[in-house]
Structures are given as C-alpha cells and as structure tokens.
C-alpha cells in the first residue's frame, strides 16, 4: 500500500513557467484508492503556500477490510521553497502509523547540493540534481510547468535515494470523476523490464493537478487513484 499512497511521479525538466504567477494559495484534494477495482483507502491532501514557502501533507487511511488488515495510516509531509521554477523541497517525511522503524526522513541542502536520508536505522548522503522533487511535492510541481514536449524526464526522491523517470504524452482526454468532468493530459511512463506501468491524467483547467493515476505491477496488480473532491483557493 505504501507504494501507492501517493502515486503521481513526474517532473518535466526545463519546462518551468513563472512559479509565482496565479498559482493557488491553498488546495485540498481527496482521492479514492482502489486495488484491482476494490476500494481500499481514501487519501486527503492539503497544499499551502505563503511568503515563498510551501507545505504539503498527504494522509492515506485504509477502509473496510483493508482497515482491519492494516490498521495503519500513511502520512507524507513535504516542506520547502517556492522559487521561480516551482517547488524546491527542503524536508520530506514518510510515516507509517506510529511505527518508528518505518519512519523515513530526507533533508535537502541546496547550497551544498546534498541530501541526507534517514531510514531503517541508518543515515546516508547523496548528491542531488537540479530540479529534484520528493514523493509528494512532485504532484504539485505540475502547477508550475508547461507540458508541451512529447516526453519528459525528471528526478524524484522517495526519501531513500534518487531515481530518474521518463514519461510520454498519450493525448488529451475528457475524464469524469465525482469531483466533476475534466479536460486532461494523459501521460504514460516509459518502462524498462521489471518496472511498474504508470499512467497519470492531469486536469488542464485546474492547474494541472492529477485527476487519475494508475499503476500496474509486473504481477498484474492494478492500483487506481481517482479524484473525488477538490477545493482550490
């Protein structure tokens, strides 16, 4: 479940708009998460920006039988700066219930271009590329990007390291949800052997926020995250 709590995984390098131009001060979004078409969890996310800083919090709570089986919530926190090229995370946290052994912390030092990762009882450091996003900030980085190229490469950290991804445009699609009907841009991840297949639909008229995200692993398990409620201020 932790892989899918927040699934939108994209940063289109080199295509930034003016990050301070007409972006929302606050966003509250709710998603339904299903495993093989069975509703398993609800995700509530809050994005706030003020005076050049931002904070994002995402909480995933299991429902029904999945709540009985897991009994744990997943909480992601991202904090950092709003720059001319968008979000620049400085701190990331991943919490799985109250389990200290599952806690992941990442701090990003942009002056030194170094990250410190704390997880599984160890501390590691690594260099970080320009434009790096963490697992939750990248979802909201789309607000600051122009997505006109046929493909996009980006770097993302899950708090344990840094991975590069590449996505291709599939096309424009109309997509209906409980939160309304949206004109969306559909992107699909380029896959190497052993990779999960990932697709995302971004709402063109709602700051390019993810409306739907699908991940299908090599064992055929399909995870689908769909927007159910959206408030933008």
Describe this structure in words.
The protein contains two helices and 15 strands. The chain has helices spanning 64-70, 137-141; strands spanning 26-35, 38-50, 53-62, 73-83, 86-96, 104-109, 114-119, 122-127, 133-134, 151-157, 162-177, 180-189, 197-203, 209-216, 222-232. The protein is mainly beta and 233 residues long. The protein is globular and about 45 Å long. The chain has a single domain (26-232), classed as outer membrane lipoprotein receptor (LolB), chain A, CATH 2.50.20. The protein is 5% helix and 58% strand. A hairpin with a 5-residue loop joins strand 13 (197-203) and strand 14 (209-216). It has a 15-stranded mixed sheet.
CATH architecture: Clam
How are strands sequenced across the largest beta sheet?
8-7-6-5-4-3-2-1-15-14-13-12-11-10-9
What share of residues are in beta strands?
Answer: over 45%
Unreliable stretches covering 5 or more consecutive residues: 2-20
CATH domain fold name? outer membrane lipoprotein receptor (LolB), chain A
CATH hierarchy class name: Mainly Beta
Gyration radius, rounded: 17 Å
Largest sheet: 15 strands, mixed
Which sequence of SSEs, written as H and E, runs from N to C? EEEHEEEEEEHEEEEEE
Task: Describe the global form.
Answer: globular
Q: Helical stretch count?
A: 2
N-to-C span: 30 Å
What is the percent of helical residues? under 10%
What's the overall average pLDDT, rounded? 87
Number of strands: 15
């Amino acid at each position: 479940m932790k892989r899918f709590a927040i699934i939108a995984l994209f940063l289109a390098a080199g295509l930034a708009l003016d990050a301070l131009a007409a972006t929302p001060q606050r966003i509250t979004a709710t998603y339904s998460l299903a495993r093989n078409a069975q509703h398993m969890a609800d995700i509530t996310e809050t994005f706030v920006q003020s005076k050049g800083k931002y904070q994002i919090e995402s909480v995933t709570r299991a429902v029904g039988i999945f709540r009985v089986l897991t009994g744990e919530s997943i909480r992601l926190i991202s904090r950092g700066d709003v720059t001319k090229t968008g979000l620049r995370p400085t701190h990331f946290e991943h919490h799985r219930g109250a389990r200290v052994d599952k806690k992941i912390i990442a701090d990003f030092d942009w002056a030194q271009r170094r990250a410190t990762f704390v997880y599984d009882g160890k501390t590691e450091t690594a260099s970080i590329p320009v434009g790096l996003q963490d697992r939750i900030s990248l979802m909201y980085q789309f607000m600051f990007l122009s997505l006109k190229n046929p493909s996009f490469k980006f770097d993302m950290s899950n708090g344990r390291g840094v991975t590069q991804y590449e996505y291709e445009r599939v096309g424009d699609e109309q997509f209906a949800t409980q939160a309304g009907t949206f004109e969306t841009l559909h992107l699909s991840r380029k896959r190497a052997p052993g990779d999960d297949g990932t697709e995302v639909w971004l709402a063109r008229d709602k700051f390019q926020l993810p409306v739907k995200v699908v991940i299908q692993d090599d064992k055929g398990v399909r995870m689908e995250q769909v927007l159910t409620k959206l408030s933008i201020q």
